[in-house]
């Protein structure tokens, strides 16, 4: 009895300490983002800025060398277009592999899976070459289009559609729907939850991507928010308070999305992690 | 003209799969082929190579100190991050799983960093938590004990920069792997534990070792593999924590950072050698993956 109480107390203590450590970086973002420049580097550490500097917001959005507002807009456009495109292209392919009988379907599918063996990061040099040959450097097309063709998403959609109840589809066929009609009118409407899961993962991945935008977005007007942050961070003499505020602003949309759609996200991560 | 059913199905297949395959050809197969091609040429500051150099680029990379050193850097990083992530994410999952209330709260708190980018984490770690100056949080805490400020990212001997790099990644990814373990824990049938209790109430550790761990086998393999592949692709936090306006220090360059500076960074722009390095890395990871597949299959045979 006594030892059970001690164990429970230890477990709660460990969990609470861990939770505080996990939340600490978020607190630092706000604390430093709302402080004055001098206060961040002050030797005596205060838990909260003595005076909250709301004007940091307006200073952040009027920086001359880093078009921060523009970078937020770029990221939003890239994440939206990439996610919509990926959902259409990869769900179609996944459905084709899962449901349409074709002699060489297996062979083609293995050729797709083989690309998963080669990490995308290893092909970044030639991919850069392809995109620059197409003239898509510092261009929305270069940021969005290469990310649409995710073999991993096709794999996830295929696994999902393999488990989709066949009876529903057969009812549609009996009513005279074509393959396309069945997909659009029966399969997609009944798979909203799974589409949402993939969408959340895609938006987060797209918003947080760094290496690819760093290579492709070379002019400041085409920077995504991560490239802009990195530019602020690695520049000479960065204004730390504005940098922290920028980081806090950059995670806000994702944290909100996360809060509302965490249910789908957990399901998506669970399914992708275990079957991948 | 009336098409046969089989022809119609074939056309439907290509209609559904075709758009994706065209993209895959342009943005996956073509770059891979191009990479192999470029690796045999002298391609400095150009993407249209003219001078064939055979295996010179490969020979250079394999005898090149920095490239081999980058493989060593990756090994150290993987040896630290893979076991730590495994143990800590499993511990978090077990802790959260046993809760009777506030479970959703703790799960969310641990998962929340997954929403952050590596750039944001790098910023916090580099300029606040582990800043080398006195006001950095780690140094403030050390100062309470009377210790002098430590230059966390700049200290090579002992390599303190690893503390910064490893903890940043742990914060970002533990929640993700915790979710995988949580899902697996929830799937373990309760009767297994009941049977263990009936056999005589064993200590918690033994139940964990003989019932929980074997049931988590598939997830554990997935966690280890995903984690290793992700460690191998490390770029974002290294670039942002270690690099600054003066460039990147000669130590702590993982393969991807080294290749980035070789092929696209200012000064280098050697696409031939960069491609050779990329091909070598791809071969290496394919080898490791195959070996691992062997290992786990062998293990499974031994267990059953």
Automatic annotation (TrEMBL), chain A:
Protein name, as recorded: Carbohydrate ABC transporter permease
GO annotation, biological process: transmembrane transport
Pfam families in alphabetical order: BPD_transp_1
Main location: membrane
Keywords of the record: Cell membrane, Membrane, Transmembrane, Transmembrane helix, Transport
Protein localization: Cell membrane
Membrane topology: Multi-pass membrane protein
Family annotation (InterPro entries): MetI-like (IPR000515), MetI-like_sf (IPR035906)
Transmembrane region(s): 12-30, 72-97, 109-137, 143-161, 194-215, 242-261
Keyword Nucleotide-binding recorded: no
Source organism, top-level taxon: Bacteria
Species annotation: Amycolatopsis carbonis
Residues of the ABC transmembrane type-1 domain: 72-262
Listed GO CC annotations: plasma membrane
Family listed: Belongs to the binding-protein-dependent transport system permease family.
From TrEMBL, chain B:
Domain of life: Bacteria
Regions that span the bilayer: 12-32, 67-92, 104-125, 160-185, 216-235, 271-291
GO biological process: transmembrane transport
SUPFAM superfamilies in alphabetical order: MetI-like (SSF161098)
InterPro entries listed in its UniProt record: ABC_transporter_permease, MetI-like, MetI-like_sf
Keywords for this protein: Cell membrane, Membrane, Transmembrane, Transmembrane helix, Transport
A Pfam family that the UniProt record links to this protein: BPD_transp_1
Main location, first listed in the record: membrane
Domain ABC transmembrane type-1: 73-292
Record's subcellular location: Cell membrane
GO cellular component: a single term: plasma membrane
Membrane association type: Multi-pass membrane protein
Family per record: Belongs to the binding-protein-dependent transport system permease family.
Protein name listed in UniProt: Sugar ABC transporter permease
Taxonomic classification: Bacteria, Bacillati, Actinomycetota, Actinomycetes, Pseudonocardiales
């Amino acid at each position: 009895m006594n030892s059970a109480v001690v164990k429970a107390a230890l477990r709660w203590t460990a969990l609470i300490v861990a939770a505080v450590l996990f939340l600490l970086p978020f607190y630092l973002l706000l604390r430093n983002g709302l402080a004055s420049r001098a206060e961040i580097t002050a030797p005596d550490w205060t838990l909260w800025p003595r005076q909250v500097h709301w004007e940091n917001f307006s200073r952040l959005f009027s920086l001359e060398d880093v078009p921060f507002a523009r970078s937020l807009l770029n990221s939003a456009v890239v994440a939206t277009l990439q996610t919509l495109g990926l959902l259409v292209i990869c769900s179609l392919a996944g459905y084709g592999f899962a449901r349409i009988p074709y002699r060489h379907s297996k062979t083609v599918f293995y050729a797709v899976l083989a690309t998963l063996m080669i990490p995308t990061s290893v092909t970044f040099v030639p991919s850069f070459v392809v995109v620059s040959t197409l003239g898509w450097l510092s261009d929305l097309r270069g940021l969005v289009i290469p990310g649409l063709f995710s073999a991993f998403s096709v794999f996830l959609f295929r696994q999902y559609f393999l488990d989709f109840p066949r009876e529903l589809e057969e009812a549609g066929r009996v009513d005279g729907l074509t393959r396309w009609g069945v997909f659009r009118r029966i399969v997609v409407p009944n798979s909203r939850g799974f589409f949402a899961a993939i969408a959340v993962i895609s938006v987060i991945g797209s918003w947080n991507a760094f290496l690819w935008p760093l290579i492709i977005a070379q002019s400041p007007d085409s920077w995504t928010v991560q490239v802009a942050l990195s530019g602020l961070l690695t520049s000479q003499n960065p204004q730390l308070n504005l940098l922290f505020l920028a980081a806090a602003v950059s995670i806000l949309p994702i944290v909100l999305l996360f809060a509302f759609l965490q249910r789908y996200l957990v399901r998506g991560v669970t399914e992708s992690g275990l079957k991948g | 003209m009336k098409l046969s059913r089989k022809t119609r199905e074939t056309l439907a297949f290509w209609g559904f799969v075709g758009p994706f395959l065209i993209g895959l050809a342009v943005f996956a197969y073509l770059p891979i082929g191009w990479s192999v091609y470029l690796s045999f040429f002298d391609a400095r500051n150009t993407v249209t190579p003219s001078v064939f150099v055979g295996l010179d680029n490969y020979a250079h990379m394999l005898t090149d100190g920095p490239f081999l050193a980058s493989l060593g850097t990756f090994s150290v990083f993987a040896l630290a991050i893979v076991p730590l992530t495994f143990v800590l994410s499993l511990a978090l999952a077990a802790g959260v799983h046993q809760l009777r209330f506030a479970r959703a709260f703790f799960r969310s708190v641990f998962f929340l960093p997954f929403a952050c980018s590596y750039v944001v984490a790098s910023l916090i770690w580099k300029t606040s938590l582990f800043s080398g100056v006195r006001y950095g949080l780690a140094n403030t805490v050390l100062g309470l004990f009377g210790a002098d400020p430590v230059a966390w990212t700049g200290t090579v001997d002992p390599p303190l920069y690893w503390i910064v790099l490893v903890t940043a990644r742990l914060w970002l990814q533990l929640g993700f792997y915790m979710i995988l373990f949580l899902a697996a824990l929830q799937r373990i049938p309760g009767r297994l534990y009941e049977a263990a209790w009936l056999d005589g109430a064993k200590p918690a550790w033994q139940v964990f070792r003989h019932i929980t761990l074997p049931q988590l086998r598939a997830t554990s393999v997935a966690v280890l593999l995903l984690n290793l592949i992700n460690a191998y692709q490390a770029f974002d936090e290294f670039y942002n924590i270690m690099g600054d306006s003066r460039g990147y220090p000669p130590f702590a360059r993982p393969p991807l950072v080294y290749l980035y500076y070789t092929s696209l960074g200012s000064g280098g722009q050697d696409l031939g050698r960069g491609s050779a390095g990329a091909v070598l890395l791809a071969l290496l990871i394919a080898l490791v993956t195959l070996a691992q597949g062997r290992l786990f299959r062998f293990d499974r045979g031994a267990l059953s």
